[in-house]
Automatic annotation (TrEMBL):
It holds the Pfam family Glycos_transf_2. It comes from Stratiformator vulcanicus. This is Chondroitin synthase. It comes from the Bacteria. Signal peptide: none annotated.
Length: 328
């Protein structure tokens, strides 16, 4: 087989990096992508989607593209929101596969190769990989699993496995064959402002495709010191809780939801609070922080659930559960 025909046979991948006003972080992220190994198995390009930056993002692209052997394209998408940026990536992609990568990450050199091999091994059109936190230099904190989850780490996923409606891929480490978007549509803006990657995967799953996860396809999420503060993590917990009650009622149905809501109260009062009190007695600061975050999520979901539980029967009700739900 000639060299030209062999090149044509190789799969092609576009790695999309959506960014907004994080030029310096973007530089490091793209440099890590430029070091990806292909083992002569595939060809790839890097596509920067600038979601309306007013910093020096465009200059960083020019700098990187002039130095890189890997093609780097730049597209500006002025409609704000990561959903619109990701959909612009779909529109711009001419490759067989489209991978998504965040601008505050660093890729393991074998990341893309592992994802591609997974697609072949499992005959799937959707794959994702492991996210590992990269803490600030000198940080030796033993973060609680809840905190690690909030910061994006793949907690408890140590073996290759299929995704499911309850375990879905995140868009920071995700690769989808381009024709999937023709079959199921693109990302959709969500009412609660989050979860567009989960909603997309649920459509993929419902169409009959099962995605797969590999712990060998590793990216590192860069965590600056300010994201380790209690204030930031509790605020992140509150944002994580937005829409969870509504999603739960939708997935379980209105008839089953009262039972689910009751079980959440049992967990909140009978499990989470006792664990927090024990951690305080033991003086375990990291466990205390992790459980405060978990309680914040539970409290907000219970409060939202109170509204949902009675709205269909007696209309809009005031948020009275804050009188009963103790502050974590």
């Amino acid at each position: 087989m000639s060299e030209t025909s062999n090149s044509i046979m190789k799969p092609t991948i576009t790695v999309a990096v959506c960014t907004r006003n994080r030029a310096d972080a973007l530089r490091d992220a793209v440099r890590s992508l430029c070091q990806l190994k292909t083992n002569d198995r595939f060809e790839f390009e890097i596509l920067i989607i600038d979601n309306g930056s007013n910093d020096h993002t465009h200059d960083v692209w020019k700098e990187l593209s002039s130095q890189s052997a890997v093609p780097i394209r730049y597209v500006r998408e002025d409609q704000p929101g990561v959903t619109h940026a990701r959909n612009r990536a779909v529109a711009e992609c001419g490759s067989d596969w489209l991978a998504f990568f965040d601008d505050d990450q660093a890729a393991d050199p074998a990341w893309l190769l592992e994802l591609l091999e997974l697609t072949q091994r499992r005959a799937t059109r959707c794959v994702g990989g492991k996210v590992v936190l990269r803490l600030p230099e000198g940080c030796d904190r033993k973060l609680h699993p809840v905190v690690r989850m909030l910061l994006g780490e793949s907690v408890g996923l140590e073996k290759e496995r299929p995704y499911s409606p309850s375990i879905t891929p995140g868009a920071g480490n995700l690769m989808i064959r381009r024709d999937v978007f023709d079959d199921v549509g693109r990302f959709r803006v969500q009412p609660n402002g989050r979860g567009e990657d989960t909603e997309l995967y649920l459509r993929i799953h419902s169409s009959g495709d099962t995605g797969w996860y590999s712990p060998e396809a590793v990216i590192h999420h860069i965590i600056p010191p300010e994201r380790l503060s209690g204030e930031f993590l509790l605020d992140l917990s509150a944002r994580m809780a937005v829409g969870m009650a509504e999603d739960e009622r939708t997935s379980r149905g209105e008839l089953m939801y009262p039972l689910v809501y009751g079980a959440r109260w049992v967990q909140y009062l009978g499990v989470l609070w006792p664990r927090l009190l024990l951690a305080k007695i033991q003086g375990d600061a990291e466990t205390i922080l992790g459980l405060r975050c978990r309680l914040r999520i539970a409290r907000d979901v219970l409060e939202d659930g109170w509204q949902l539980l009675f709205s269909s029967f007696i209309g809009e009700v005031p948020k009275t559960t804050s009188d009963h739900v103790a502050q974590a």
